[in-house]
Amino acid sequence: MKHLLNAKDLTKDEVLLLLDTAEAMAATQDRQMKKLPVLRGKTVVNLFFEDSTRTRISFEAAAKRLSADVINFSAKGSSVSKGESLKDTAQTLDAMGIDGVVIRHSASGAPHRLASTDWIDVPILNAGDGTHQHPTQALLDAFTMRRHLTGAKDGSPAADGTDLSGNHVVIVGDVLHSRVARSNVELLQTLGATVTLVAPPTLLPVGVENWGAKVSYDLDAAIAEEPDAVMMLRVQRERMSAAGGGFFPSPLEYHRVYGLDRVRMNALPEHAIIMHPGPMNRGLEISSEAADSPRSTILEQVTNGVSIRMAALYLLLAGDKESLS
Ligand code: CP
């Protein structure tokens, strides 16, 4: 594994290595001294061409907890606003001597472009590209599911090597614009879970029938199948208005048909968890009652994101792997 670009590129063994390493990282994070020396002397650049709260901050926290130096680059306020290209930006960073790049970009394929050229020769970690991929989100979601749906099933650490066989995950909402949905469908299938995608026809991409997931327009019917986890997707209104709108009649109507409200939450099996990658549109795809309920793992997903990103940075950037204990 030289780069982390795409959930589909990962073999099951690689996914399990990432999840098990993240468990080892998480075990170090309850200590008073959270820092590990494993990336001392390395420099990681966070190259963010698109807004982010969770991913940017957790990659920064992860790199710092591994003792790396972190350079945060935001396209806003940089020479990108003067027209500087991705190539020139990458080569400028390379000239400063860096060891890894975390990139988020609105253009699908931008991280792959960086990884496939000679502009920069360091590991590239995809932090979300357009509507294409968000592999570390899928990994942190799988990590969270493994903790809740296997073993003690109470959110405590999962046993090494555990997959998600036999579990059924329902992913609901704006699949069309969601890199989270794409990455999750791929990774969940690698781990042996079955997936149902639920969305209005206007929010399903062309070719979704080839993703290997069941597709439904009916959220209540999907809930009646007693899934183990339901993942609500953010309605990406910024991408919809850029496309001229018209994807659903009104926010009220969307919430009525596809929102996770109290009634639907109570119809879920008792053990089922409620997930959302954030940021949430409360009252649209998810009600506050569901988002803030004891079965919601939304904030745990954020916590687990730091462990997953520590694992990814460690496995890609550390030369000789040291003991994590
Ligand atoms: N889930 C996620 O990618 O959130 P951010 O956009 O805040 O990073």
TrEMBL record:
Pfam families according to UniProt: OTCace (PF00185), OTCace_N (PF02729)
Subunit and interaction comment: Heterododecamer (2C3:3R2) of six catalytic PyrB chains organized as two trimers (C3), and six regulatory PyrI chains organized as three dimers (R2).
GO function terms (MF aspect): amino acid binding; aspartate carbamoyltransferase activity
Name of the protein described by the UniProt record: Aspartate carbamoyltransferase
Similarity annotation: Belongs to the aspartate/ornithine carbamoyltransferase superfamily. ATCase family.
Reaction catalyzed: carbamoyl phosphate + L-aspartate = N-carbamoyl-L-aspartate + phosphate + H(+)
Entry binding sites for L-aspartate: 82, 179, 234
Family annotation (InterPro entries): Asp/Orn_carbamoyltranf_P-bd (IPR006132), Asp/Orn_carbamoylTrfase (IPR006130), Asp/Orn_carbamoylTrfase_sf (IPR036901), Asp_carbamoyltransf (IPR002082), Asp_carbamoyltransf_Asp/Orn-bd (IPR006131)
Function description: Catalyzes the condensation of carbamoyl phosphate and aspartate to form carbamoyl aspartate and inorganic phosphate, the committed step in the de novo pyrimidine nucleotide biosynthesis pathway.
Domain Aspartate/ornithine carbamoyltransferase Asp/Orn-binding: 166-316
Phylogenetic placement of the source organism: Bacteria, Bacillati, Actinomycetota, Actinomycetes, Actinomycetales
Pathway involvement of the protein, from the record: Pyrimidine metabolism; UMP biosynthesis via de novo pathway; (S)-dihydroorotate from bicarbonate: step 2/3
Enzyme class: transferase
Gene Ontology cellular component annotations, sorted alphabetically: cytosol
Keywords: Pyrimidine biosynthesis, Transferase
Gene Ontology terms describing biological process: 'de novo' pyrimidine nucleobase biosynthetic process; 'de novo' UMP biosynthetic process; amino acid metabolic process
Binding site for carbamoyl phosphate: 54-55, 104, 134, 137, 278-279
EC number: 2.1.3.2
